[in-house]
Automatic annotation (TrEMBL):
<keyword id="KW-0443">Lipid metabolism</keyword>
<dbReference type="GO" id="GO:0016829">
    <property type="term" value="F:lyase activity"/>
</dbReference>
<dbReference type="InterPro" id="IPR029045">
    <property type="entry name" value="ClpP/crotonase-like_dom_sf"/>
</dbReference>
<protein>
    <submittedName>
        <fullName>Putative enoyl-CoA hydratase</fullName>
    </submittedName>
</protein>
<dbReference type="GO" id="GO:0006635">
    <property type="term" value="P:fatty acid beta-oxidation"/>
</dbReference>
<comment type="similarity">
    <text>Belongs to the enoyl-CoA hydratase/isomerase family.</text>
</comment>
<keyword id="KW-0456">Lyase</keyword>
<dbReference type="Pfam" id="PF00378">
    <property type="entry name" value="ECH_1"/>
</dbReference>
<dbReference type="InterPro" id="IPR001753">
    <property type="entry name" value="Enoyl-CoA_hydra/iso"/>
</dbReference>
């Protein structure tokens, strides 16, 4: 199964995504991920959720090839709605969500991680938004939760990435460990949370969300509105077609 859930006796739900080759999710999979995370959090026996991936990287965003091989805008709209649903599921999960990030975390991956409560990363992990190179926008809302404001703008405009070590310096990543220690490191902090009274932790999650200075769901949907404009103008297709054909952004040699 591409998305699975395993449970420990201490109340940890481990949600694993496995979409070879790079965990670029088709539109339906984003909705599936939202459903799995929501179901895990709503289970009263769950004290904390770990979100992780198998394979070369944590998440490569949406499946652009699906968009470019599907007639009409169904796949595009599905991906936008699916990403919004998955990001919201992480944010609204009644219990803390720990993101265990290996390798690349780009595009939609940043949306998931930016809405998580705790981030543990492998020492080869890196994060970024290639959106402008794909003729799209989105997840600046979530990148802004990982890096300072001017760094976010620089990374966004240039489509550069930031390393796990840099995020550790900024304080958004809790720990950086070798890749083979990633799950155990995530489980270690999950166990610390799981030992607490889940009634108190669930109240704490709700309280922290309510005092959040940014409405992440509304902010992200506003970003998506600009993406729809770029699609209507034909700009996005130009960039996505170039990426599917060459694997490179428009203007790259």
């Amino acid at each position: 199964m591409p998305i699975t859930t395993a449970r420990t006796d201490s109340g940890i739900a481990i949600v694993t995504v496995d979409y070879p080759p790079v965990n670029a999710l088709p539109s339906a999979a984003w909705f599936d991920l939202a459903y799995v995370i929501t179901a895990a959090g709503e289970d009263p026996s769950t004290h904390v959720v770990i979100l992780r991936s198998e394979g070369r990287g944590f998440n490569a965003g949406v499946d652009i090839k699906e968009m470019q091989t599907t007639t009409g805008f169904g796949a595009l709209i599905g991906a936008n709605h699916g990403c919004a649903a998955a990001f919201s599921a992480v944010y609204d999960c009644p219990v803390p969500v720990i993101a265990a990030v290996n390798g690349f975390c780009v595009g939609g991956g940043v949306g998931l991680v930016g809405n998580a409560d705790v981030i543990v990363a492998s020492d080869d992990a890196y994060f970024g938004l290639p959106e402008v190179d794909r003729g799209a926008l989105g997840a600046a809302t979530h990148l802004a939760r990982l890096v300072p404001q001017h760094m976010m703008r620089t990374l966004y405009y240039t489509a550069q990435t930031v390393s796990a070590q840099q995020l550790l310096h900024f304080g958004s990543v809790y720990r950086v460990v070798p890749a083979d220690e990633l799950l155990s490191a995530a489980t270690e902090v999950a166990e610390m949370i799981a030992k607490k009274d889940t009634r108190v932790i669930r109240a704490a999650k709700a309280a922290i969300n309510h005092i959040d200075p940014v409405d992440v769901k509304t902010s992200y949907r506003l970003e998506q509105g600009y993406t729809f404009e770029l699609n209507l103008a034909g700009v996005s297709d130009e960039h996505r077609d170039a990426f599917v054909a060459t694997g490179k952004a428009v203007g790259d040699s």
